[in-house]
C-alpha cells in the first residue's frame, strides 16, 4: 500500500487528485498539503499546511507520515508566471529542488507534471515528438524544461524514481485553473451556462492540446504505478486527449445550448504564449511505455461538463 504526500493539494489538479487517491489508497494513506486549504480538503482526511519553499517543514511532514511517494503539484502557471517571472522561477524551481532533496533523503518516488509549455515556437508544431527541440519563451516553460532535466538528473545520479507527464490544458468542473493560457476552455463552459455568452481571449484558429480531468488523474495514477523497468523516458511524457481551436469548442457547446453567443476579445499576452506552443503533441511513447489511454474526446467531455456544472447550480 502506498503512502502519498501531495503538494498543491488545494489547486486545480490537487483537489480532485486528493479525493481520488483517498478513495483508492485509503484516507490514512494520503497526506494533502498546501499553503492554503479548503474545507473539503481539511474535513475529509489528513491535511498539513506547507509552503514548498520550506524544505524543513516538507521533510518533517514526509517523515511524520512515513510517506513513500510525493506528488508535487505546487507551481505557478504560464500567464500568471509572465506577470512575475522572478517569483515563478523561485517557486517552481525552489519547490521542485526541495521536493527532490526530500525524495533523495527519504527514498521516495516522485511524480511532478511538466506541460506543453515546455515546447517553444521552434519545436515541430504538429504532432510534436517526445524528444525534440525545447526552447520555450515563457518563464513557466523555462521552469518546466529545467524541471524535466533536474528530475532526470536525480534519477540518473541518485536513483530517485522520478516520473512526469507534459500535460495539455486541463478542463474540469470542480476547481477552476488559476492563471493559465488554456483557461479559456474552462471559462467558456461556465459562461455558456451562466450568461449564454463568451468572448475568447484566445484567437480563432489557435489549436492547443487539451484533456478532461478524469483522464489526467488516471494518467497520474497509471504512470505512478507503471513498471519502472518499462520506462525508457521519465521526465516527462507527452500526453494529450484532443486538440481544438476556440470555434470548435464553441460549436460543440452550441449543440447543447443553441442560443450561446460566441465571440473574440483576444488578449495579446496569452495569445502569444498560445502561439508559441504546439498545435498537437505525439503521445506514442506514453502509450508504448506505460499504456497511456483516454476516455474523453471533445464531444463526450462537453456533455459531461455541462451536466456536472448544472448539478453544481452554475
Ligand atoms: C497553462 O495554460 O499554463 C497550463 C498548461 C498548459 O500548462 N494549463
TrEMBL record:
Stretches that traverse the bilayer: none
Coiled-coil segments on the chain, per record: none
* InterPro entries found in the cross-reference section: Epimerase_deHydtase (IPR001509), NAD(P)-bd_dom_sf (IPR036291), NAD(P)_epim/dehydratase (IPR051225)
Q: Which positions fall inside the NAD-dependent epimerase/dehydratase domain?
A: 4-230
Highest taxon listed in the record's lineage: Bacteria
Give the similarity note: Belongs to the NAD(P)-dependent epimerase/dehydratase family.
PANTHER family assigned: L-THREONINE 3-DEHYDROGENASE, L-THREONINE 3-DEHYDROGENASE, MITOCHONDRIAL
What is the name of this protein? L-threonine 3-dehydrogenase
Amino acid at each position: 500500500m502506498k503512502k502519498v504526500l501531495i503538494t498543491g493539494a488545494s489547486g486545480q489538479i490537487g483537489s480532485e487528485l486528493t479525493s481520488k487517491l483517498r478513495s483508492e489508497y485509503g484516507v490514512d494513506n494520503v497526506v494533502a498539503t498546501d499553503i492554503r486549504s479548503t474545507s473539503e480538503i481539511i474535513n475529509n482526511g489528513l491535511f498539513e499546511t506547507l509552503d514548498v519553499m520550506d524544505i524543513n517543514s516538507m521533510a518533517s511532514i514526509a517523515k511524520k507520515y512515513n510517506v513513500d511517494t510525493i506528488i508535487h503539484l505546487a507551481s505557478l502557471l504560464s500567464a500568471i508566471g509572465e506577470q512575475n517571472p522572478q517569483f515563478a522561477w523561485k517557486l517552481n524551481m525552489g519547490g521542485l529542488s526541495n521536493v527532490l532533496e526530500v525524495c533523495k533523503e527519504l527514498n521516495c518516488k516522485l511524480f511532478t507534471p511538466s506541460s506543453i509549455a515546455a515546447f517553444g515556437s521552434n519545436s515541430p508544431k504538429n504532432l510534436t515528438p517526445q524528444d525534440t527541440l525545447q526552447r520555450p519563451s515563457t518563464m513557466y516553460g523555462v521552469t518546466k524544461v529545467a524541471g524535466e532535466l533536474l528530475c532526470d538528473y536525480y534519477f540518473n545520479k541518485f536513483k530517485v524514481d522520478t516520473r512526469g507527464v507534459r500535460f495539455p490544458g486541463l478542463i474540469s468542473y470542480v476547481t477552476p485553473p488559476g492563471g493559465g493560457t488554456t483557461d479559456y476552455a474552462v471559462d467558456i463552459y461556465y459562461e455558456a451556462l451562466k450568461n449564454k455568452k463568451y468572448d475568447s481571449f484566445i484567437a480563432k484558429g489557435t489549436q492547443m492540446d487539451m484533456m478532461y480531468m478524469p483522464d489526467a488523474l488516471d494518467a497520474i495514477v497509471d504512470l505512478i504505478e507503471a513498471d519502472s523497468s518499462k520506462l525508457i523516458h521519465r521526465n516527462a511524457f507527452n500526453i494529450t486527449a484532443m486538440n481544438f481551436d476556440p470555434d470548435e469548442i464553441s460549436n460543440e457547446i452550441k449543440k447543447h445550448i443553441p442560443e450561446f453567443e460566441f465571440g473574440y476579445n483576444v488578449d495579446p499576452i496569452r495569445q502569444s504564449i498560445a502561439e508559441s506552443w504546439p498545435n498537437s503533441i505525439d503521445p506514442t511513447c506514453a502509450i508504448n511505455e506505460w499504456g497511456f489511454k483516454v476516455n474523453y474526446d471533445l464531444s463526450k467531455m462537453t456533455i459531461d461538463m455541462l451536466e456536472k456544472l448544472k448539478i453544481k447550480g452554475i
